[in-house]
């Protein structure tokens, strides 16, 4: 499951589990001292390549903290992977 690998990379050593509720499914994340809030943006946005940096600046609390998971034609990846591909 691709989403689990992106979540695992983002949360690294934290414990989480996937709960299949026969609808959408849920991830249950156990929060510790390093992470005090885990949220989701409910709306899906169509974002072009030129708009990604602006959206990330609005959604994340700082440049070095947080992850945004993006669905692209190349698969599901976080925003740092997208920047690495864009700069190549």
From TrEMBL:
One of its GO terms (molecular function) is structural constituent of ribosome. InterPro entries: Ribosomal_uS8, Ribosomal_uS8_sf. Keywords: Ribonucleoprotein, Ribosomal protein. The keyword Hydrolase does not apply. One of its GO terms (biological process) is translation. It comes from the Eukaryota. GO terms for cellular component: ribonucleoprotein complex; ribosome. Belongs to the universal ribosomal protein uS8 family. This is Ribosomal protein S8.
């Amino acid at each position: 499951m691709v989403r689990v690998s992106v979540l695992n990379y983002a949360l690294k050593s934290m414990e989480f589990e996937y709960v299949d509720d026969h609808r959408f499914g849920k991830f249950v994340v156990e929060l510790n001292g390093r992470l005090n809030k885990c949220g989701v943006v409910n709306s899906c946005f169509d974002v072009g390549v030129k708009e990604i940096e602006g959206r990330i600046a609005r959604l994340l609390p700082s440049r070095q903290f947080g992850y945004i998971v993006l669905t692209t034609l190349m698969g599901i990846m976080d925003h740092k992977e997208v920047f690495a591909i864009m700069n190549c």
